[in-house]
């Protein structure tokens, strides 16, 4: 029915907001005044999956932690369940994957973002009575955090909650119960083949982005954030990607292109600029996971 993704810095109050939302939704759904279809609410987070915070200290333990989170979300998504995914969800590519999983079953998507300064997060982390992040891990995660953007479809509708502000429960309820659900599209569902000209555009743009990434990887072997050149549909340097500190093999990039094209070949409504940005985000996330 719906996926509510909660994203934010570590120790920014995500679980507090998730608990408030869970209690509010359960209260409304059990109220005699509610006349809609029977719905259930499921909260998924590191605690329910027994994922320790230390998992985020290094890549080899973080990857299976994210995989467990994704698996649990996919397992519970259906047309009669509201799933609350309460986790860091700090990688935009991962939030995009969550969005696609929701769209595959016809569920709507919403994002909640507690906007808290890193310094406040450190104070709250230090005050934890239970398991806390190490200061080094917390600061590294804060540096890597990719803020949600209301203009991207996988982060919208976006509910930003400043420190000290209440969660807009009425607005969220209205969105989840009366919002227009978008039908599953090319990214998540097999549909008839798109027009040949769109496939040509998809192939050409992904090839340009792939070539630009390979070139940037070759000239920046230490990795980091690079501005891509040579993507015709965007101004030079307008597209940025985070590269790993290792060489990217052309065969690996070709595999990413095949996966992305298979995923998006039937969505002719997507324009050229969005193809470039989506593919860059797809590659960035795939490189993190590889």
List keywords for this structure.
five-stranded parallel β-sheet, single chain, alpha/beta, 7 strands
Structural class: alpha/beta
Proportion of residues in β-strands: 5-15%
How many strands appear in the DSSP assignment?
A: 7
Biggest sheet strand order reads 2-3-1-4-5
Q: What coarse outline follows from CA principal-axis ratios?
A: globular
Distance between the termini: 31 Å
Major sheet size, sense and barrel closure: 5 strands, parallel
Ordered list of secondary-structure elements with their pairings:
Elements: E1 2-6, H1 14-30, E2 40-45, H2 59-76, E3 81-86, H3 92-104, E4 108-115, H4 118-126, H5 135-144, E5 158-162, H6 169-178, H7 196-219, E6 224-227, E7 240-243, H8 250-264, H9 272-289
Parallel strand pairs: 1-3, 1-4, 2-3, 4-5
Antiparallel strand pairs: 6-7
Helix pairs in contact: 2-3, 7-8, 7-9, 8-9
What this model shows, in words?
It is globular and about 60 Å long. Mean pLDDT is 87; it is low at 181-194. β2, α2 and β3 (81-86) form a beta-alpha-beta unit. The protein contains 9 helices and 7 strands, in the order βαβαβαβααβααββαα. The protein is 46% helix and 13% strand. By secondary structure, it is an alpha/beta fold. The strands form 2 sheets. Strands 2-3-1-4-5 form a 5-stranded parallel beta sheet, sandwiched between helices.
């Amino acid at each position: 029915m719906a996926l509510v993704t909660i994203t934010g810095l570590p120790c920014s109050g995500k679980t507090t907001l998730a608990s408030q939302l869970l209690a509010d939704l359960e209260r409304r759904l059990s109220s005699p005044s509610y006349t809609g279809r029977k719905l259930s609410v499921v909260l998924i987070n590191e605690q329910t999956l027994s994922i320790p915070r230390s998992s985020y200290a290094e890549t080899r333990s973080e990857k299976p932690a994210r995989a467990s989170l994704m698996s649990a979300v996919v397992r519970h998504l259906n047309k009669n369940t509201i799933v609350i995914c309460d986790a860091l969800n700090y990688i935009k590519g991962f939030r995009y994957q969550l969005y696609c999983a929701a769209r595959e079953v016809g569920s709507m998507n919403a994002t909640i973002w507690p906007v808290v300064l890193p310094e406040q997060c450190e104070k709250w982390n230090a005050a934890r009575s239970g398991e806390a992040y190490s200061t080094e891990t917390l600061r590294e995660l804060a540096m890597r955090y990719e803020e949600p953007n209301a203009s991207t479809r996988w982060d919208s509708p976006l509910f930003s909650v400043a420190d000290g502000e209440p969660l807009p429960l009425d607005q969220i309820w209205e969105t989840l119960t009366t919002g227009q659900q978008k039908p599953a599209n090319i990214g998540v569902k097999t549909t008839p083949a798109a027009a040949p000209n769109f496939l040509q555009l998809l192939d050409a743009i992904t090839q340009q982005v792939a070539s630009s990434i390979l070139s940037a990887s070759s000239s920046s072997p230490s990795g980091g954030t690079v501005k891509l050149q040579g993507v015709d549909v965007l101004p030079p340097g307008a597209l940025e990607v985070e590269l790993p500190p290792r060489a990217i093999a052309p065969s690996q990039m070709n595999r990413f292109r095949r996966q992305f094209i298979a995923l998006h070949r039937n969505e002719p409504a997507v324009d050229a600029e969005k193809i470039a940005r989506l593919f860059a985000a797809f590659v960035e996330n795939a490189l993190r996971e590889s």
